[in-house]
Amino acid sequence: MSDLDIEALGEDFPLLEAIRTARAIRRLRTEPVPPALIRKVCEAGTFAPSGGNRQPWIFVAVTEAERRAWIGERYRARFRQYILPALERAEADPDFPEANVRNMRAALHLADHIHEAPVHLFVAGWKRRGETQAQALFPAIQNILLACRGVGLGASLTTVHLADGPEIDAYLGLSESTPSCALLPIGWPVGRHGRPPRASVDEKLYFERVPEGAIAPRR
Ligand SMILES: Cc1cc2nc3c(=O)[nH]c(=O)nc-3n(C[C@H](O)[C@H](O)[C@H](O)COP(=O)(O)O)c2cc1C
């Protein structure tokens, strides 16, 4: 990977194809990602819209193995505490869709191997009037995920670390005014990108008004 032309990488990737295939990639190879490439995908983040163009985002890329291990310990423990029980219930339920079980298993795999992901990219941002502005950061996060897709990196969006938010933020040198809101584990994918399972847009799109009874209540 050392002879990568980082400037050219991903520049010709079709946007809509990237959007349709930027699924959560949770199985990552351990080879490092060049800092210039981390910079490139974060730069895509900086082109996101934000209220008043305040650009509240701060990106912290953790690459040192010891620091990733420290973060991984906390992520894994929280995942096992909060999400593993749901996976166990889903596995025991014959009516639970198999694709969703597979997705949860992939999330468990990530939790168990997150320390091996070569980049832990945290997205943090300035609070406004005392409130965390997650909505101001998610467009930047999605731009980064798409840029990863475009340059061939695997990535996913995670929030499990928020259960230990203040401790992890302090570890990252972030203050109470600039909490993190997402952790993107990034690396070269083991498998391939592909279309994720999604309901048809025809089940989601209405023109002018939603007809009465068209939206079934969620279980
Ligand atoms: C707000 C938000 C929080 C998420 N948190 C986590 C997480 O903590 N861990 C994880 O493995 N995936 C997390 N995900 C990823 C979703 O599980 C994933 O996007 C979804 O299953 C669709 O995956 P697919 O695009 O591969 O179909 C999160 C996604 C969103 C939008």
TL;DR?
The protein is of the alpha+beta class and 219 residues long.
Tell me what the structure shows.
The protein has 219 residues and is an alpha+beta fold. It has one domain: NADH Oxidase (3-Layer(aba) Sandwich). It contains seven helices and four strands; from the N terminus they run ααβαααβαβαβ. Strands 1-2-4-3 form a four-stranded antiparallel beta sheet, with helices on one face. It starts with 14 loop residues before the first helix and ends in a 32-residue tail after the last strand. The mean pLDDT is 96. Flavin mononucleotide binds next to helix 5.
For this entry, what is the oligomeric state of its chains? Answer: single chain
Q: What kind of sheet is the major sheet?
A: 4 strands, antiparallel
Specify the structural class.
alpha+beta
Number of domains as seen in the coordinates: 1
Order of helices and strands: HHEHHHEHEHE
**Largest sheet: spatial strand order:** 1-2-4-3
The CATH class is Alpha Beta
In DSSP terms (H or I, runs of 4 or more residues), the helix count works out at 7
Beta strand %: 5-15%
